[in-house]
Amino acid sequence: MADKQALKQAAAAAALAYIRPGQRLGLGTGSTAEEFIRLLAQKVRCGLDIAGVPTSERSRALCRELGVPLMDLDKTARLDIAIDGTDELDRRLRLIKGGGGALLREKITAYAAAEMLVIADESKLTAQLGAFPLPIEVNPFGLAATKAAIAARAAALGLRGAVSLRLAAGGDGKKDPAPFITDGGHYILDAHFQAIPAPEELAAALCSVAGVVEHGLFFHPHCRAIVARSSGAVEIITAAAV
Question: What is the pTM of this model?
């Protein structure tokens, strides 16, 4: 059985088949996206002409280190394809993203792209979203009010579970633990709902909460997923197959 890192590499390698010279790419954040960036850099060194928009400062730094050409999203009207990992996905290509804290930039970049290509190992594929805590990016001002409103909207949809402030790495156990700060200067609340039967309804409810900057539910209209399996197979999930 292949280990999880090998599966991430397999999914990333399969994604290269969808990249064409001259494309403008959204480059995701997280361990699987980083595997793709490393493989993409090898192609660039062999002459592949692309330009990428990184979705986090971490991804930007990796691209610069490896020599992947970068561009500013404000200087192009449209990206061709966004390649990113996911924390969960179902067979309707609905996603939970934001475990790495970059969900706002990931969503802006994904929706600026004509297509979204999700790369994942088989552990990320689920029958129902929600086992992974849903990240919700919020403004630091009025945090308690925002948190209470989120809980109320969730309860109205029959959802239960703690909504907790994400702490910075190493913050646990401190007398005054520091919150995790996103690249945009926001906080993240993680909603532990366990199961989300109606993700679209929850997304709409969260968007109605003042103080919510963005949520980690993704519904890209032109999405496909590459899922690497321990059997050695690579499954392609498309909207047509749903």
Answer: 0.94
